[in-house]
């Protein structure tokens, strides 16, 4: 195996085997890193994630910290979750389905309540400090696709190997002829996959001679085989990780009418993607080749959240919250491995790419909500949230984006309004909940094309509350489309969508 370090910038990183996408990789990452779906305890997930005007729940630490003012005791809770994924895709007329499983503990926290008895006569009744670990967004997703590439399809690149050959093809379609082998090096280095293909023997350098044996120059061509049969392609893309926050919040109660809160949100970004692309030519020279690409993005940053909840009458809560922009310092590593399985042996090569550090800014977010209580029988609640994805920013002071256009985010994304609705019914110690959440499409109209990635989530759950102990179980189903992409530049588009079912259990106790 040949292993070497390839000094590349982010431009090579975003130019993966998945190729050019309808929207830029910058925009897709901006949405992925900024879009907060539903998070928190099973109780709030069961309510569609609506928590701006509700309180007395561990989720308030990470949502609207003013909700901590509703506590009258200290408490803790923990919320493990089990996710089941139903993933489907379409590529070159072939539909594929796959299933997956993920188990995590995305939410846990503790609150410490203090009653202001020493301030007799004051309208400030109590304050509560909370600390929580909360996954704002889960990146869990799987895309599996397969299809057959016909020979000579409309003059497009036939397969991945011919894609790697493109730097050596002249404008008239013929192979470029070089005066020396050194003269070929810039074209080899113009595409990391071209270099890999040559190192494993999928591309070869040929000497061009005249009839007398004089060297006329050098040409690069694919392996010594005339492709006369269709090529089968498959790829598996597995994404894990998420944006998780460590939240330190404080909420206070003023006369049981006004509840104010503020919190420090320390963000941790962890994104892992593993892609395994395989191509099976139908010949007696090469069995198949496999490209494995592993990407790891990690970072940390901090932001603030402030909020307020007002009770104009006992049966109504009105809440607002504001989260500041959050700057995250990011490091990124990519490893690419190409293995060719010939009939007479195996050849392998690898690239390790360390991208210069850069930063990303999660946009600010404003939320408002209202809750109406139905005496002791329950309540209904609703939230509306505004986030301007086009204001997300990628920044680098050391050339991480050389040759790229991170400002594409401004053109390709837009503001989005998200809605969350929920209802809870109560009977003695028992609780039943239902919720719905709609996450607006963050993508703008691009050259007459509009990728619709609005998300929908439905949820329902049950719970009990007795003697300070609570147990809640919620089921939720989130459905969304994934951005279309090319299997490689010049190929057909891959379309896919995901349905993720989650079972979340929350156990809690006051003390």
TrEMBL record:
The keyword Signal applies. It comes from Marivirga aurantiaca. Residues 1-19 form the signal peptide. This is Transporter. Keywords: Signal. It comes from the Bacteria.
């Amino acid at each position: 195996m040949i292993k070497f370090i390839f000094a590349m910038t982010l431009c090579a990183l975003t130019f993966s085997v998945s190729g050019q996408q309808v929207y830029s990789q910058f925009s897709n990452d901006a949405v992925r890193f900024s879009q907060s779906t539903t998070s928190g305890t099973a109780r709030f997930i069961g309510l569609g994630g609506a928590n701006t005007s509700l309180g007395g729940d561990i989720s308030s630490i990470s949502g609207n910290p003013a909700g901590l003012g509703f506590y009258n005791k200290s408490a803790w809770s923990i919320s493990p979750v089990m996710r089941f994924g139903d993933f489907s895709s379409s590529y070159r007329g072939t539909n594929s389905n796959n299933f997956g499983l993920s188990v995590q503990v995305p939410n846990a926290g503790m609150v410490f309540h203090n009653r202001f008895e020493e301030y007799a006569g004051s309208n400030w009744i109590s304050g509560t400090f909370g600390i929580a670990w909360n996954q704002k967004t889960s990146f869990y997703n799987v895309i599996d696709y397969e299809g057959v590439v016909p020979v000579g399809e409309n003059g497009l690149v036939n397969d991945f190997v011919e894609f790697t050959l493109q730097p050596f093809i002249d404008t008239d379609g013929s192979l470029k002829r070089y005066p020396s082998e050194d003269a070929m090096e810039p074209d080899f280095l113009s595409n990391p996959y071209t270099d890999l293909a040559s190192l494993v023997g999928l591309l070869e350098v040929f000497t061009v001679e005249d009839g007398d044996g004089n060297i006329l120059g050098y040409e690069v061509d694919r392996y010594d085989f005339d492709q006369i049969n269709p090529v089968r392609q498959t790829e598996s893309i597995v994404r894990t990780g998420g944006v998780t926050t460590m939240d330190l919040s404080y909420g206070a109660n003023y006369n049981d009418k006004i509840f104010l809160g503020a919190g420090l949100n320390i963000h941790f970004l962890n994104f892992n993607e593993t892609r395994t692309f395989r191509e099976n030519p139908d010949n007696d020279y090469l069995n198949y080749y496999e490209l494995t690409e592993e990407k790891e993005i990690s970072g940390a940053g901090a932001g603030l959240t402030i909020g307020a909840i007002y009770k104009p009458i006992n049966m109504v809560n009105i809440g607002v919250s504001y989260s500041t922009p959050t700057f995250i310092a990011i490091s990124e590593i990519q490893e690419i491995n190409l293995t060719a399985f010939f009939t007479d042996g195996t050849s392998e090569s690898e690239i390790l790419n360390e991208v210069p550090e850069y930063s990303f800014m999660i946009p600010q977010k404003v939320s408002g909500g209202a809750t109406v209580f139905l005496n002791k029988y329950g309540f209904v609640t609703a939230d509306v949230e505004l986030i301007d994805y086009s204001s997300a920013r990628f920044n680098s002071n050391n050339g991480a984006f050389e040759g790229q256009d991170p400002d594409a985010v401004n053109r390709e994304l837009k503001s989005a309004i998200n809605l969350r609705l929920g209802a809870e019914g109560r009977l003695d110690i028992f609780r039943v909940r239902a919720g719905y959440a709609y996450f607006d499409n963050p993508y703008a109209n691009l050259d007459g094309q509009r990728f619709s990635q609005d998300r929908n989530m439905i949820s329902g759950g049950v719970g009990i509350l007795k003697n300070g102990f609570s147990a809640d179980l919620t089921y939720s189903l989130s459905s969304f489309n994934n951005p279309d992409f090319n299997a490689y530049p010049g190929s057909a588009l891959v379309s896919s969508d995901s349905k993720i079912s989650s079972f979340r259990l929350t156990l809690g106790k006051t003390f």
